[in-house]
Amino acid sequence: SFGRDACSEMSIDGLCQCAPIMSEYEIICPANAENPTFRLTIQPKDYVQIMCNLTDTTDYQQLPKKLRIGEVDRVQMRRCMLPGHTPIASILDYLGIVSPTTLIFESDNLGMNITRQHLDRLHGLKRFRFTTRRLTHIPANLLTDMRNLSHLELRANIEEMPSHLFDDLENLESIEFGSNKLRQMPRGIFGKMPKLKQLNLWSNQLHNLTKHDFEGATSVLGIDIHDNGIEQLPHDVFAHLTNVTDINLSANLFRSLPQGLFDHNKHLNEVRLMNNRVPLATLPSRLFANQPELQILRLRAELQSLPGDLFEHSTQITNISLGDNLLKTLPATLLEHQVNLLSLDLSNNRLTHLPDSLFAHTTNLTDLRLEDNLLTGISGDIFSNLGNLVTLVMSRNRLRTIDSRAFVSTNGLRHLHLDHNDIDLQQPLLDIMLQTQINSPFGYMHGLLTLNLRNNSIIFVYNDWKNTMLQLRELDLSYNNISSLGYEDLAFLSQNRLHVNMTHNKIRRIALPEDVHLGEGYNNNLVHVDLNDNPLVCDCTILWFIQLVRGVHKPQYSRQFKLRTDRLVCSQPNVLEGTPVRQIEPQTLICPLDFSDDPRERKCPRGCNCHVRTYDKALVINCHSGNLTHVPRLPNLHKNMQLMELHLENNTLLRLPSANTPGYESVTSLHLAGNNLTSIDVDQLPTNLTHLDISWNHLQMLNATVLGFLNRTMKWRSVKLSGNPWMCDCTAKPLLLFTQDNFERIGDRNEMMCVNAEMPTRMVELSTNDICPAEKGV
Fold first, then answer.
1. How many CB atoms are located within 10 Å of the residue 188 CB?
2. In this protein, which residues make up the domain named LRRNT (predicted)?
């Protein structure tokens, strides 16, 4: 066979160019031509493709000489002219092609009509495909010498088929005459082909078929007459096709079909009536009745109704497709005899309700598609006999209610799709607390793998989804109305790797505990929960969620689930709006202390804002710029709180209350910048004070008792003293020593100024001798 050596020799003589490409060889003649006359692609022992660019038949002289390609199975000639009055076989001989069994000739540039002579010496062919748009008639003896042919395909705009065209083709098994312009079939043309099994006559103009068109075709198993513009058929048109198993009637113009159309075809296995070009309102009674071998029906023709006996006694049907019609309901008896039905497609109709007994006998049904209809509810009985159902799709209906018993019997269900409906699953007679404790209607399906509830009105995560659906792998709750989540809503016990989609809900709060003890024997699979695209309120209630997301807190329960939050941002408060949760600092998470406008109920002083900060268990009271002349009455520190932070900046305070004042005694962080304080005594400083800002007041000195208190209680950079008119004389010596000994505690030490000098002087630049010189002689 042709190989690398032959390819190299061809390139040497210079007439043609040969190059190996992967396992193939490509030959171009003439060599280096931009638009070569011939391009040959050779896969040794398999196929040869000859691509032509001819002006007339003399160009065949440019084919490579002395080529010996050897045995191949398939030869394809594309865009080539017929070789004058010589056989096509002469070209194959010239190229050294031996014993091909398949010839494909595709060209719209034949140069002349094809004749019997062109097919001379091709008697070994088993498959012949001839495609052109330039041929309307073929000679009656065209195929006389091709007695071994088993598969014939002619697509050539042929208008008339010679009556004796197939007389010598006793081995023919398949005829493909699709995409021609045939108007009728000569009577008896198929009578001399005892092995004929497949007859494809699609896309012709066979408007007026009768039973005589198929005389002698008793061996045919499959017939395809789709897209012929047929408006009606005689009731006995298929009478001679007694062994036919598959019939394709699609894409025609049927406005009705005759009763008894398939009465003579008791071996039918599949019938297709798809994409009818005009509305076909209904089908005749018993059209597919009493068919002992019928298994598959595909019917899409804008059907508006069906007779109840359409499939009567056809017990072997396994697949029925009625999708994309205009059906509003179905007869209760439609599927009465379909005990072996496995798949039923009723999608994209206008179904508003279905009889409860419709599926009473289809106990083997495994796949049911009801999506894109107008169904509003699921009754407790309609699926009661579908114990073998595996997949149920009811997406894009108008479902609102599901009976609590609807899925009691569907123990085999694995995939349930109820997305794009208006399901809320609520029980109208139960209060909201009880709603969260009950199971959903799906709790009986312990083997469920997929539960798709996307785009509904669900507001809870139900217990059965977490605790009894142990095989669950996909739970889609996106685009629902869930507003809050707790730890219990994420504690799924699925034994599979579960993915839960909660994106695009209304989740404002995610309250997780600091930790949960899981027990020694805990061995759960990691649950992946997508929480993105929710309007999260970033306040104190989500502290442990934020810490978990940031990776700084890893409680035991973090082994239960992995949260996806890469697109989750804060919607409130305003200062955090748009901030990704992964970037939230925990100390910014606060909650209002109370919301009441009634002074008798308010705990927060009027004119102030009070917040709880769970990060450090602090109560933050902000009375900033409130025009206050005294410290207001403060709430007591709750037992769960450890710190009280009081902000009184930019008011007009003259003095502080006693440290023992109720509420004030609990202050641990006191912010007094920008007031009118002239003095502070130690009995005005709360015992547990750790932060003090008294900058920008009118203080001239701090006594030793106060400084001793600050020395004992203040933390790193926890004191601010700048902006006061400090008197730097001998009385200020304790203050200066305090600033020198505690420079790490004073956050603004470098800004403290002495004002009693001729020029304001930074206190940090002074020594004790500068402010209080030692007496001479001492």
1. 15
2. 603-640
